[in-house]
Design goal:
CATH architecture of one domain: Orthogonal Bundle
Largest sheet: 2 strands, parallel
CATH class of one domain: Mainly Alpha
Oligomer: single chain
Distance between the termini: 57 Å
Radius of gyration: 26 Å
Helix content: 55-70%
Structural class: mainly alpha
Number of helices: 33
CATH topology of one domain: Lysozyme
Length: 535
């Protein structure tokens, strides 16, 4: 049984000094369809003065219980064990040392354990030995003088528990040795090995580990691993033939069109084969790779539209947030008749919604680059308007009531903690729901971009920071672009460790180029010139 008492400050995931919460009723919550949007309102409801029973009823209607929801629920539910689990999950490594084994298991990750000294790690591993032997062994190994030697003889489960979960610095300082054939035979067919490959290839310091991956059989590996192995071959001796072999294998495994185009792009970089470039230029997917090929061959994309007509001239919104959720659920296989109905029914305010449906109807083989909310951006520079459109198209398709699973809000997907910070800077009291008003959302996004833009000076770097944070961008991304890597800056763009931020940057950059050349017809911006400015 979890210990019920130990001194921890139980803090909710976010605190808002200047953000006001609107009163939410339980009957209204219960009337909503299960969705990410409903989870957001449950999360706010759990911060109100409610009973344990009301908290349980609210949570039972959630779509997905993330930590934000669980921590607030645990505080309201007044159930000792639930509250203790939440405390354990939020506790520091030091606070966990003297707790029972279940609490330690719930709260002590391998990366968190690295902050403990040798004696405390020893205490924890001894405690866990009987109930959680895999984690106990992992802690013993990271606590040993030569962890790699111990890791070499460990089971595959223990190997992945350590290698895939320690910090990048620990991996570099303690585990950067060649993987023997015995180790590789033990781990190469396990699904977790795909993550191992990614961690090795995306950290340019791990040269010894990277040399272990050259000429590895990638038959059982996924698309990403085959692609990473190709990059690894290029980064370790510019082994072009081996890289092409891995790229060919990756192409067979690729599902998404952008991934197929990425493989073609890298084959072109390696070979300079114009037929590959021509093939890439014929892609229906508008992405940074196909745009590069079209630019090189002086081809204008044929499947891009900037103007979308909507027959209902009313400016008033006819859809609630939850009406739109129901429409999204019912139009997964939208046909021409359904599309025509929405084109005649939706108002001018719902232009982004119609464009979302048109993308679905065309199965994303036709791309629409609309420019809504122009009245709110009239006083902004061309560069800022271009950046706003590029980001909003990727973040939310311009749909003002969008909510992500992490509760990022509105057209520009602004996180609640950032709303709080920006509201203080602007001297405003604000409801989080105000972020669903496009004018307010863009005002706050512009304020945030006022901070990012002078510090990063390139749309690609700004997009990385907008998605992954300026700390991560400065610490982990910018140094990649300064390294002496082959095929720069493309190599740096592929080695970003956080997948979401990596893909986000590519898509925003493609949007930026298209919007810039649409909004400013006097001077064409090229991909080549933008990329040259990166190094």
């Amino acid at each position: 049984m979890l210990k019920k008492i130990f001194c921890l400050a139980f803090i909710s995931s976010f605190t808002y000094a200047d953000v006001i919460t609107k009163e939410i009723s339980l009957p209204w919550l219960e009337s909503l369809p299960r969705s990410t949007a409903k989870d957001f309102y449950i999360w706010q409801y759990l911060d109100q003065d409610i009973s344990p029973d009301e908290a349980l009823i609210a949570l039972s209607g959630s779509n997905r219980v993330n930590n934000n929801l669980f921590f607030r629920f645990a505080k309201k539910f007044e159930h000792d064990e639930t509250y203790a689990v939440a405390q354990c999950m939020q506790a520091s490594a030091k606070d966990l040392v003297n707790q029972d084994v279940d609490c330690i298991e719930n709260g002590l990750s391998i990366s968190k354990a690295l902050s403990l000294d040798v004696d405390k790690l020893s205490i924890v591993s001894q405690k866990l030995k009987e109930s959680y032997p895999t984690k106990a062994t992992a802690l013993e190994i990271i606590n040993s003088p030569m962890p790699f030697a111990r890791l070499s003889s460990a089971s595959s489960d223990v190997f992945f528990e350590i290698f895939n979960k320690v910090s990048s610095d620990f991996r570099y300082l303690k585990l950067n040795y060649r993987l023997t054939s015995a180790i590789l035979d033990k781990i190469k067919d396990k699904p977790q090995f795909n993550q191992t490959i990614k961690l090795i290839v995306t950290d340019t310091r791990l040269k010894n580990l990277q040399s272990s991956l050259l000429e590895i059989d990638d038959t059982t590996l996924n698309f990403e691993s085959s692609f990473y192995l190709a990059l690894n071959a290029l980064n370790n001796g510019d082994m072009k033939e081996l890289a092409i072999e891995y790229l060919n294998n990756a192409s067979k495994k690729a599902y998404f069109k952008i991934d197929k185009d990425m493989v073609l792009f890298w084959k072109y970089l390696i070979t300079n084969d114009e037929t590959i470039l021509q093939n890439l230029s014929e892609s229906w997917d508008i992405n940074i790779y196909s745009l590069y090929a079209m630019e090189k061959l002086n081809i204008t994309p044929k499947n891009i539209s900037f103007d979308v007509s909507i027959n209902n001239k009313s400016e008033n919104s006819i859809l609630t947030q939850f009406d739109w959720i129901k429409i999204m659920d019912s139009t997964r296989n939208i046909d021409e008749e359904m599309l025509e109905y929405f084109q005649n029914t939706l108002s001018q305010h719902e232009l982004p919604h119609l464009v979302f449906l048109k993308h679905r109807y065309h199965k994303h083989q036709k791309s629409f680059f609309i420019t809504p909310y122009e009245q709110y951006l009239a006083n902004q520079s061309l560069q800022r308007r271009t950046l706003i459109y590029a980001i909003a198209r990727q973040e939310s398709n311009f749909i003002p009531t969008s909510i992500s699973t992490s509760f990022a809000l509105g057209a520009m997907q602004i996180m609640p903690f950032l709303v709080n910070s920006l509201s203080k800077e602007l001297g405003e009291d604000i409801y989080l729901e105000d972020m669903f008003d496009a004018q307010t959302n863009l005002k706050y996004a512009n304020k945030h971009l006022d901070y990012l833009e002078p510090r990063l000076n390139h749309p690609l770097f700004i997009s990385y920071a907008y998605n992954g944070g300026i700390g991560y961008t400065n610490r982990s991304i910018l140094p990649l672009f300064k390294e002496n890597l082959p095929y720069q800056p493309f190599m740096a763009m592929e080695l970003i460790s956080y997948d979401e931020t990596k893909q986000y940057g590519k898509k925003v950059l493609a949007n930026y180029i298209i919007y810039n050349n649409y909004l400013d017809k006097t001077k064409k911006l090229t991909i080549s010139s933008l990329l040259e400015a990166l190094h």
